[in-house]
Amino acid sequence: MVSINRLPLLVVLGIALVACGKSETTSTAASDELIVKIGAAGPLTGPQAHIGKDNENGTRMAIDDANAKGVMIGGKKARFELLSEDDQTDPKTATIVAQKLIDDKVNGVIGHLNSGTSIPASSIYFKNGIPQISPSATAVKFTAQGYNTAFRVMTNDAQQGKALGEFATRVLGEKTIAVIDDRTAYGQGLADEFVKSAEANGAKIIAREYTTDKSVDFTAVLTSIKGKQPDLLFFGGMDPQGVPMVKQLRSLGMKTQFMMGDGGYTPKLIELGGGAEEGTYASLPGVPLDNMPSGRDFAKRYEARFHQPIQLYAPYCYDAVNVMIAAMQKAGSAEPAKYLPEVGKVELKGVTAKIAFDEKGDIKGGAVTVYQVRKGQWHAVQTMGGTPAAKP
Amino acid sequence: MDILFQQIINGLVQGSVYALVALGYTMVYGILGLINFAHGEVVMIGAMVALTALQALLAAAFAPVLAVLLSLLVAVVACMALGYSIERIAYRPLRNAPRLAPLITAIGVSIVLQNLAMMIWGREYHSFPLPFNSISHHFGGAVANDVQIGIVVVALIIMLGLMWLVHHTRMGRAMRAVAENPAAATLMGVNINRVISVTFMLGSALAAVAGFMVSANYGIVHYYMGFMLGLKAFTAAVLGGIGNLRGAMLGGVLLGLIESLGAGYVGDLTGGFLGSNYQDVFAFFVLIAVLVFRPSGLLGEKLAERA
Amino acid sequence: MKLHRSSGHLTLAIALLALPFIIDALFGHGWVRITDFALLYIMLALGLNIVVGYAGLLDLGYIAFYAVGAYTYALLGSPQFGIHWPMYVVLPLGALIACGFGVLLGAPTLKLRGDYLAIVTLGFGEIIRIFLNNLNAPVNITNGPQGISAIDPLQVGAFSFGSSYEWMGIRIDDVHLHYYLFLGFTLLVIFVSRRLEDSRIGRAWVAIREDEVAASAMGINTRNIKLLAFAMGATFGGISGGLFAGFQGFVSPESFSLMESIMVLCMVVLGGMGNVGGVVLGGVLLVALPELFRNAAGPVQQALIGKVIVDPESLRMLMFGLALILVMLWRPAGIWPSTQRRREFAADDSVLHQEQETVYDASK
Q1: Distance from C169 to chain B by nearest Cα, in Å?
Q2: ipTM for the complex?
Q3: Single pTM value for the model
Q4: Domain assignment of residue B286, yes or no
Q5: Is B6 on the interface with C (CB under 8 A)?
Q6: CA–CA separation, B182 vs B179, rounded Å?
Q7: What is the pLDDT of residues C79-129, one digit of tens each?
Q8: What range defines the domain where residue B193 resides?
Q9: Which listed residue, of A114, A163, B78, C206, carries a Cα 20 to 30 Å from B152's Cα?
Q10: Helix B245-269 and helix B225-240: axis angle, to 10°?
């Protein structure tokens, strides 16, 4: 039984290994300075890494802006620090990351990117009383778990699906609709809500097809849909699938309208679409950046700083940080327990919309703007619901 | 009827790509009895290299046809070098190790290649700049464009070429000999290491061509694209009988057809109870059914006890 | 000798009991949580070790049993159906159902060998995941990709492993409590594994692994013995899955991807197939390494080059892949192989080495 006697050695080895991993947190704070740590969590590796990085960039910009401006909290000058962690779009890693951020004594968390990571992590933030504002989790359940720490600056699937369904039926007047979703929490959630809304407004769903978030070939389902000749095809999913889908749609000779949710409103869709994306509709919560005074400026500064256009949710991360800071200022403290009650009461003119939360932590009103690709550019078509519609 | 015809075209295009990648798996398996899990990533590297080469060549104002051919050549050469190195570094030292050891290094190589690609080419999707318009042709009510026709034709030519190489050249004979019995082949004066290196390089060259085709067809390239494709191709290779070249082609085309017909029709046949969301389930069910009745795949030989 | 052994046991017991508090004091709760997950993975790896290590059946879809266990727990202990059965009913039930799935997978694949088996098990794992992902319509069973949340914590009576308790001035949090629970189960699995290894069944598995025809000629009922391997392995997976669901409070199909199956296989092979100690080591290493690189990649660059050139996040998985390759090249039979395997490997090696040398001479 050699192995039994060797085991303690292994344990020691294990501890030693772990010891190497200890992250050093040396914060040399002057006494009159208040260090505020903002955690950010999202996928920085894996297929959604580019969107995760975009989120991190948005958060970083907000933090740097706040530091440059010199925010006072409770009479002290606050210095904000960003702690960014990779959750790999994996629920288990998300809980580990959440626990680590809490170990590192973050004052609040911006994240996670996906619903599938935000939900398991939210219970850990709740247990530790850490406010969490997700910039992009859309599953209805995220804020419906009864956690007073969970907020989002993004409309949920129900709000967005409803707006898109109304736009397709009332504004575009489409009667027969085909729906594809990518079987992710986001795609399926949005597609289901879209179907509900479209059917409630009298449209007929004549085909419901599916794909995955790793597919690039959709010819089989598209051909099947072609036989049913719908007026409009709605895809619940992200742009990596949206681009090849719209290309294959057109190369099969189908003239059907193509519509996506916020996962489609990206510069990539136009960059990669090669012309096939012309006429595509996509939505984005909030009002167009161009219509918000600070929005246009934000987009310009983002491009100048990161040498790429905004991918998707960076402005929401920017707003989320500012909501958090506003709550801290109001409470006069960066202590999570002290400023948490203020988060729900914040009213802020962000770069994406006027932000206020309802009692669950969802964004109030939930305006959704529908855009269309016209001559290789995204154009705002109409803002549905929520705050007064902005003129296109 | 037009729809059925279109589904068959879809399946053939997809199947040709699977077949090309499956050949790489099957060649290596036939000779080494090793699942080269990193093969899907070689396809991805091929696509990425082709992308960079094509961008550079187009920027240098090369003629479109020349740019396409040259970038394909660059990708093929790069992948051959990559395949050679993978075998040298990760597999050759383990040739006599327990059977699962090279499987783990293969997974390791796969992770390394993916993350290297992410560091080099970034996290975003890239557009694959095909320098000419792919014109659509109508056959009755069905449509196929130049790229799709090109994929099927090129895949067919490559497969015929490969068959010729394996059955009518000295190298091919050596490959078959090593696959049959490595020890005996050595005794007959075959340089096993050389044969294995050549096999890896050939398989990787096919992977590069497949990578180029996929990118041209879908127009986008991403560092994550190799994994699923590799998995599907591996399934195709097993379906046809792994280790058998004709089997890989048959398996690839069959898998493509099963996927497109399955996704296209099962939803209607089961009254919407099972839909295209079960596309991969159909594929695996067919695979399991085939293997239950023919445990070595469609065209696989009955394997004798092989430790 | 006897004294030495029991004192060894005692040190080990104390070390294991104190471990979560040592880790907590040094590195915080995050690492205790990682340790908890490590224990779950060790259970998984030990289960897979029965199938792959003992019986030599390559299984690439093992995570399916973990999924079955997790979803059983989730469906019978959450608001999804409004059922809230206690843990001591649901956990064994999950293990039983997983065991049933093990037999279901084993039965049609008995005739298949090696890599054919690998692809069928891979397909099986994907089929289970796809069903879990899609069974929200027409009847909502699994809630599809949205997953099931608000799952009951692991609890016995009024004592919940998901809460924090104060005991003699020491604060014990949920991560610590789960550690002890998981440790108990892990030790049970280790105990069962070791007993099996030395039993008639264990020897029958090894016999099948080494030569199936010879084994059946010796009167071993290869069909039943193979099915038993699948069933036992699946049972461990099912238990681990149930614990996972209760620990995390949320399950969704994305936790049960093919990559997870591959990771568990890596633990078994890298640690040392067929050796319980090796498999445990493999589990610890593969859970800890990526987390370690997460923390180390930035500071190490800082120290060596003076600034962070490469994004630590990109480096993390790269280092992990490299580690897999290097360890296998360094120790092809695993870091800590079973003595039997080591002997075989050594024998194989010398014979083959001889053969190669002669070939090499001839080609000169």
Answers
A1: 46
A2: 0.88
A3: 0.89
A4: no
A5: no
A6: 6
A7: 999 999 999 999 999 999 999 999 999 888 888 877 788 888 999 999 999
A8: 16-226
A9: B78
A10: 100
